[in-house]
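dude i think i finally got it to work??
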Amino acid sequence: MRVVAESGEDIATTVINLHEVLYGLEKYAKLVRDILLLPVLEYTKGDAQLSAELELKAESLEKPVRRADAIIAAITLNRGAQLYTFDLKHFNVFRNFGLKLLVQ
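look at this
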């Protein structure tokens, strides 16, 4: 997280990531709710269009992706943002389509 904090960039999360984090917090009875303080990037019609295109392009490269990852990538790309991830293998294929990644 230090990489993100020191980047000098505005920090937000996607509504999809918020779900994933809250699910984990609830499942493991963690009481940390600071994630709710972050701005949330919503999923729009334009994001739906781009995420479908990204998913199909990844498949055409024989690198199928999780639909949630295509959605997160589309939300990020459509806002001209960078994506911070601990899991490069899920998002690396989207670099081919202009996604900028910050990795731990």
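The radius of gyration is 14 Å.
im so relieved honestly
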